[in-house]
Amino acid sequence: MIRKLWLELRLLFTILPIALILFTLEYTWAFQHANIMYYSDKDGYGLVMSPVANSAKEIESFLKEHPQGLILSLQNSPHSYFLGFDGIARTLLPFMVVALCAGGILSEKNNGTASYSLSLPVSRSSWIWSRAGALLFLSFLTALISCAVTYALAQWMGIAHGLSWLVTEPVLLTLGAAPWIGVSLYIQSLFSGRFDPASEAIIPVAVTALLVFLTDIFLPNSTVNGFGNPYLLLMDAAESVAHPTLWKPLLATGIVGITSLLLAVRRFERMDF
Predict the structure, then answer these.
(1) Phi and psi dihedrals of 101, rounded to 5?
(2) Using one digit for the tens of pLDDT, what is the confidence trace for 50-62?
(3) d(Cα 113, Cα 116) in Å, to the nearest integer?
(4) Which candidate in 72, 76, 157, 204 could, as Cys together with 80 as Cys, close a disulfide (CB 3.0–4.6 Å)?
(5) Cβ neighbours of residue 184 closer than 8 Å, sequence gap 6 or more
(6) What are residue 38's DSSP bridge partners?
(7) Separation CA 115–CA 162 (nearest Å)
(8) CA 182 to CA 168: how far, in whole Å?
(9) What is the mean pLDDT of the chain?
């Protein structure tokens, strides 16, 4: 079953890390040659990138609008390089998770391979949980590969950073995006049998991607949107014995992902394959 899933996803899994790495390379070039204005406040978070260095007036206007904003550049704040990557990866990884979930169980139902999968000596719920686990693992590998390339680029630019980042950052990015696996599978179950096979493959992905986009826009720093900023959370947690800031989003993302997955399992168990 896992081998069949790998054969189905191997092309997409190859493309997604490359796409994230290309975004990182573009960001790295801008970080080296221009100023990147970064903010994370009550209005949300974002990166303002320019192919040329911003003028003093533009920087002053940006800091006036976002007092907590940062200017990311190799010359002025080399260690802020990792903050910029975090913003890019945290924004893009949920969309990549949704892409990995595309088709999935609905495609197996439409092309007839679901009958073979269900004939194996495993329960239908185990089949869905194992698929979700495999998708989570591929999501983690996507984050890990991208983080490894980013760390190598930082070393190449002479930016020293602890190796522990290669553990904490992929884990936090994955946990922040993981709930969308459950949401994707649940939305697939809702649309099953309602459209033609082609539409069933496209519409659930489009709806889930729209939800990710709306969450980014309207709930940028909420517990619903994963971990918000992993760096700020880690700093807050380090200053607190109870670690309330870290556990609150962890609990929220876990509830969203697991509840959605449980609902998806329940619906798929009742489906006629």
Answers:
(1) -80, -5
(2) 666 667 787 788 7
(3) 5
(4) 72
(5) 97, 98, 101, 104, 204, 205, 208
(6) 47, 70
(7) 49
(8) 23
(9) 74
DSSP at 112: T
Q: Tell me how crowded residue 64 is: count the other CB atoms within 10 A of its CB.
A: 9
Strands lying side by side in the sheet with 44-49: 44-49, 36-41, 70-72
- Residue 23 CB: number of other CB atoms within 10 A? 16
Model pTM score: 0.75
- What is residue 238's DSSP assignment? H
Q: Are 50 and 129 in contact (CB under 8 A)?
A: no
Neighbouring residues of 63: CB distance < 8 A, sequence distance ≥ 6: 69, 71
Q: Which residues pair with 37 in a beta bridge?
A: 48, 71
- Single-letter residue type at 220: P
Residues ≥6 apart with Cβ < 8 Å to 163: none
Q: Are 183 and 208 in contact (CB under 8 A)?
A: yes
Helix, strand counts (H, E) of the chain:
11, 3
CB 91 within 8 A of CB 216: yes
pLDDT digits (tens, 9 = 90+) for 185-198: 888 888 776 766 66
- Single out the residue of 190, 208, 243 nearest to residue 96, CA to CA: 208
Token pair 């320019």 is found at: 50
